[in-house]
Sequence to fold (707 residues):
Amino acid sequence: MDANLTKLADRLGIATEFSDGGLKSKKYDVDEKVIKFLASAMGYPASNDEEINHSLDKLDNLRWQQALEYIYVRTQNDVFIDVVSADLSGIEIEAKSGDGAVRRLDYEYMKDTARHDNLYKESLRITTPLEIGYYDIKVTLGGKKYDSVLAIAPERCYDNLPQDKKIWGYAVQLYSVKSKRNWGVGDFSDLAELVKLCAASGADIIGLNPLNVLCHDFPENASPYSSISREFLNPIYIDVEKVPEFTAADKKPIEKLLQELRDSELVAYEKVYPLKVKMLEQCFARLQKGEDKKRQKAYKDYCSAKGKSLENLALFQAIYEAEKDKVWGGWQAWPQKYSSPKASGVKEFLAEHKDRVEFFKFMQFEAERQFALVKEVIDSSNMKIGLYRDLAVGVGKDSAEYWGNHDLFIPSAGAGAPPDAFFPAGQRWELGAFLPHKLKEEKYLPFINILRANMQNAGALRMDHVMSLMRLYIIPDTMDGGSYVYYNFADMLNIVAIESWLNRCMIVGESIGNVPEGFLEALSSKNIYALSILWAERLNYGWGDFRQPESYPSNAFVSVGTHDIAPLKMWWFGYDIELNYEVGLLSDLNEKAEMYHKRETDRKFLLAALDAAGVWPQDKLRSGDYIYGEQYPEGIEEAVMKFMSKSNPPVFLAQLEDIFGVDKLQNLPGTDRDKYPNWRRKLPLDLEDMKGDDRYTRCVAAISAVR
Fold:
């Protein structure tokens, strides 16, 4: 590869080579075409030598063209800024905090002056102590004032775990919760009742799937990781009967339908969501025409507080609804007049469809109101952590988040995963990826707003694919391969730490995949908890013994599995192996047979680990080796729950699917709903019946005996 192209790639944070995350790590050289594409997409053309040299010169001159950086992200014990000016005498720095207070900051020169033509660059260490948070700063240079932002981060993220006790709770897909009163999908009222059940059982945390808003016009696109905006909630979780404008008369004509929706094995999104929307439309019309001035004011205040972000979401949903039958291909196929919130036809559309735009805002207003009520129940229940929310790594390119600010994203490309042993061709997630330099120009506000929205009402936040704080694998739309694009890891970590403290929210990082060397250590030093699961805590890269509980990492949240992994009973019988074969993810019969043989060995390893830990219930001791064809081991749910409860991690998240013997998967990665009903499977038991269920009470007792 040309030396200057390599230099340009390094300067821009584009990897020219990388290794995969397989057991036998393989090295890949990045195609020059990919590097040139990504460099150009980032604003630095690189199609030939002349362009490459020009782009390098542009980078060399970049910092000298502005007096201050857009934002300085620093830790409390190391606060400094750099300034560029022809005159470095008489520098003054003022800082305004969030409460409006303004003060002058003291500083000292760091003695590292650099020169470029007639300009000087100097670093200044701020000696005035500053609290965690964001400050608007004004710096006087040569008699002129320049603005920037100073973000002050703690050394470590917030932590609210009790020091004298390990805690536990549940990992739940909210849509999967059944109850005798919901409308065929778990809702915020169910969540409030689940909080009460958990608190009564001694649990202190509830882990949730992402709750963000999905595509209004295609409710069957149900993956909670495919949001159209990570700043707002999914209206399907609204309990319509708790909307103040709803009446008992509204429910009478649909009682039979509601019972059918409750009784269905899978969530019928194509029926549930339109039904809720229809009822919410009636409620909104009553709010507009009614005389409840207090609620009308609350709605207007909410819209005002959410500002442009809410306006963009509601506009996107309204335009999408109007255009869905006219064009195919999402917002990028819309007429040019709707190509962005600032496009020529959007203002006219808003004037013509104001009520519809307001309705989409109303759904968010009511969703947030009901979600806040859940937090009130958590607070009154004195749960240690409360909600443990999940932040998806990105949004699809056909999303309101992308439409609202597509200049912020790498154009004509999407995030994915590089080749590995499981996906030799890599994975295309088709997620929009932030342009690193543009994100900094925006003072990280898009990222900050997303963090704040998902920390709302939460005591902990799981960051999906947390490696994105450092790098993302970006694949050009017209190419097969891609490369990693690096972000300012220190800035991103510190922003997370700031928001963690400001929102009193712990941080957990999901790091399954290709993890860079030293990355996990960096997270740990920032007090970001790792994730661990039973199936990963094994010797010999998953081929040997299960580790005993005392050898588990102490800086992690732990569970038996995840929504992408077979629940305990399904794993035991190998139904997941058969499922993979049925849908074509596994095609070789010999490989299928080998997987069954390995699973038989794995089951023996698990039994031996449970024996060694002494966790079998005394009235249900192991009575055999349970070879294929024999029954499911009696008491194994309790044994596994107690085994995991004895482990080192301070937080254990039990899955209700394991407790109730579910033998089907929530999500089968690599498939869509034409092959498997992903994100639709309900729990087998109504919420009201859980407390009295013997499996539930025994598993809670097994956990409580240790935690």
